[in-house]
Each structure stands twice: as C-alpha cells, then as structure tokens.
Fold each of these.
Amino acid sequence: MSRTVFCQRLQKDADGLDFQLYPGELGKRIFDNISKEAWAEWQKKQTMLINEHKLNMMEPTARTFLEQQMVGYLFEGKEPDIEGYVPPSQ
C-alpha cells in the first residue's frame, strides 16, 4: 500500500518512500518529507557526484560531502554542482 507525503523537494503531494532508506534523524526526515520521485532524482545526481569527484564512500569526508549535497538538494532546492551537467530548465 502506498503512502502519500508532501514532498519538500517537489512542493506537491506524491508517493512516499516504502521504507526509510537512510539512517538516523535525517533518514526519518527524508522518509516523512521526500517522495519516491525526488529520491530517484537524487540517486541519479548522487551517482554523478560520486563519479565526478571520484568519491570513496569508505571515507567519512566523502560521506559528509555527499550528505551535505543531499540535504541541499532535497530540502533547500539547491542543484549539486556537477561539472558539465546542466539541469533541464523547468
């Protein structure tokens, strides 16, 4: 059964995530406030960021950087700075 959340990224009601995909308080905030659609968009951006910055996810600094980018993207409407990537205009 799907659940609906008011997605802070998309600013509309949308299908919520099926379960908490990220640990801790931030994970709960994402689960409560971010839609499947916005999460899927973030996953694509995250992959681009990991590749571009050659992030090693075993490194705490890499995880911290990615988490900051994720919060900015999901909750503050910030596009991550990805070299050579131009977001589609709305």
Amino acid sequence: MTLESLQPGHRARIASIDWDALPPADGKRMRALGFEPGVEVSMAHHGVFGGRDPVAVSIGRMTIALRKVQAAAISLEQA
C-alpha cells in the first residue's frame, strides 16, 4: 500500500520511500519534514478536486500537504 491510498483517519508506518521517483528538491524537503522509514503517519484528508490532489498527511504534530505523486512514492506497512 502507498501513502496516497491511505484512507482519512487511518494510521500506518512508512516502510520505504522511492527517492529516485521524486525530484531532488522534493526529496530534500520531505526528509527535512521527517519522512523516513519507520515513522508513523496518518491521512488527514484528500483534496477536493477531481484528482483528489493534494493530500494532507499528519506526522507527529505537523500536517503536511503532498501531491499524490509524492505520496505514491511512499510505501506503508501497518502501524
């Protein structure tokens, strides 16, 4: 399962991140915000537009907006 498919209100742990699928600037920003394997995340909500972009993800006390392509690069496991 990837982060983009996580339903609102559900939690999971980051299993891996395909850094090669992301532009270097996006990867740097995501690392700085705490996206690393082993971190627990929850889906706050999906966007309201047709493609449901962006998604809002909670890590600790932060809520971060990601594009679906960024969320698709993050593989999850059950928390």
Amino acid sequence: MSAQDLKTKNADTEKITINLGPIDLGQIDLLVQEGFYSNRTDLIRTAIRNQIVAHADVIRQTVTRKQLVLGLQHFSRADLETVRQAGQVLQIQVLGLGSIDADVSPELALATIESITVLGVLHASPAVKAALAGRIR
C-alpha cells in the first residue's frame, strides 16, 4: 500500500478510544489469537457493524423523520455564495460527513448557515467551527 493510499484510507476514518475491562480485552485477544479476527480493531469494527445492521430499521426511520442527509454533504465557497445571493440560509443535517471548504470565511458561514447538525464528523476550518459554535447542534 502506497503512502497516498494510507493517507486516503486514514482520511475516511476517525479514531475513537474505548475503555474495556481486562476480561473483555482478554476474550478479544483470545479470539484474535485463535484466528477469528486479524486484530482487536477488526473485532471491534465487526461488532459495531453488526449492531448497526441489527438497528437498521430504527436508523432508516430516524434518518427519514429527521430529514438527515445520509453520507457526505459538502459545501464549497461557491455553494454558500449562491445561497447568500438567493437570500437564503441553510439548516444542515447530516448523518456521516459534513464538509465546508477551507476557503469559506467565518463571515460567509454565519451569513448562510442557520444551524448545523452532524452525526458523525464535521470538517471545517477552526475559524468556521468557532464562528458557528452557537449554531452547531
């Protein structure tokens, strides 16, 4: 795997930290040692995916009810300029990745984004995140 492939793969994931008791951790290590999983992360990802599948109907119903965009929603400076020129404001609701280009100014973000809810990851400049802090739910 090339360095570029690793950068792309890492950009698609977020690191989380969990605390486990020694017995749970030992059982995970046993399953890895016995070849059921390639490593601890593989087991944890599989367990999380299984839970998401088990609750798929609830997730689907909630996405519909809350009118969330599922996946990726990206806003460029041009997108937000168009919104401003139309005299509109956005109520952004995303389940996945919400992204605002780095060249979007805090002033433009404030003028065009009324509220933003991201269940997952929000990528935006620190300045835009700070400006929108009171509007991020």
Amino acid sequence: MSSKGAKLAYRPFGLGAGILAGVVSGAVFKQVWKRVSGEDDAPDALQSEYKMREVVLAAAIQGALFAATKATIDRLGARGFTKLTGSWPGD
C-alpha cells in the first residue's frame, strides 16, 4: 500500500481513535479531579465562584490528560493498522 493510500485508509481508524481518546480522557479527568479537589465537577471558565487558578489548573490537567491519552491511543491504533496492512499510516 502506498504512503498516500495508507493515510487515506487510516482516516476512519484515526477518527474513531480521536473519539475514543475523548471519552477515555474525560472519564480519567473526572476521577483525577475528584481526588485532587474533592468535588465531582471541575470548574467551568464562566463560573464566578471559582478563582482563576482553579479554572486554569483544571483546564491544564484536562488538556494534558487528553493529549497523553490521544497520543497513546493514536500510537496503538497505528501499530494495529500496520499489523493489518503492512503500512505505517503516518509515513
């Protein structure tokens, strides 16, 4: 399979991986936030009862967890795709 063909064939896998990463990282973040803060829900940027540092900290943790989860799932998906097709989807 050509490099361009592998990239095209991988797109549905990549889309599914992105959705899965969002779901998994959301669940992980909810648990992490609950343990860190003792609250069920993280502060939203527009909730006035939270201080700026709490809102920014929550966003930073959530972003880092999402990025790490997405990279992990993308890499595992690419490895699985390569085993199925013999082509690496990113090259």
